[in-house]
Amino acid sequence: MATALRPTDPALLHYRSGGFFLARAQQVDGGLTRGIRDVLLGLVAATDEPISGGRHKVFGRADLSIIPQTSTIASHLPRAVGVAFSTDRARKLRVPCHWPDDAVTVCSFGDASVNHSTAVGALNTAMHTAYQGMPIESR
């Protein structure tokens, strides 16, 4: 999925989305060295790990437009809805936004997340925005 999106499209990733992280790193870095280094530093809980300082496994890097999330199951889904909503809202109001006007916000999550209230709330919110003409979709 990462190669179908632009490196400027915001992504909030599940902790098992290493493939996405490495594909995005390859798009930006032109190779896998830095991305693999970041993942390995996280696996050995190294203090040099760039996002959590080795405290827990989480993907994130500003230059990859990968927004770090907490380890709480499905807690990043409402944030993804908020990023998508605010990006579209900023475009409509003509105010500056970190993301491109036509950004696609992507959020990955595992099957255990689906029955959590935060996931259900985020999916319901994304679907409800269709009534407001917002381009938020869940697939």
TrEMBL record:
Dehydrogenase E1 component domain: residues covered: 1-130
Pfam families: E1_dh
GO molecular function, one term: magnesium ion binding
Keyword Oxidoreductase annotated: yes
Cofactors required: Mg(2+); thiamine diphosphate
SUPFAM superfamilies per record: Thiamin diphosphate-binding fold (THDP-binding)
Taxonomy, superkingdom: Bacteria
UniProt keywords, alphabetically: Oxidoreductase, Thiamine pyrophosphate
Transmembrane segment boundaries: none
InterPro entries xref list: DH_E1, THDP-binding
Name of the protein in question: Dehydrogenase E1 component domain-containing protein
Organism: Mycolicibacterium doricum
